[in-house]
Amino acid sequence: MPSVGVVTDDRVSGSPGQVKQHCAGHAGAVPAAGAVHQDRAVGTGDRAEKIRTYNYGERRVTDHRTKLTVHNLDQVLEGELDELTASLQSDEKRRGLEAQAAA
Q1: pLDDT digits 0-9 by tens, 48-87
Q2: SS3 of residue 58 by DSSP
Q3: By three-state DSSP, how is residue 93 classified?
Q4: Cys-Cys crosslink for 3: which of 23, 57, 95, 97, Cβ 3.0 to 4.6 Å?
């Protein structure tokens, strides 16, 4: 079985146990009002574009949009996404400032 489960768009790949474990951490999750807009601002949404990689063997999560890697997989699967969302917010702010400077 593969030791890595990958989330691409809204799909999860990996062993059935990995998929079940990943999905359990998101039960009842409701996206924020600006979530769709933020996803479009951060990435292209291509089917082949990776959003996040979950490496169970190394207990590692990598967010490919912001190039952030954390080694707290258990906490991420339990819903503790503060570090990942802070990275996305920081990247969105940086992009906005760059766009203002270019205008």
Answers
A1: 788 999 999 999 999 999 999 999 999 999 999 999 999 9
A2: coil
A3: helix
A4: 57
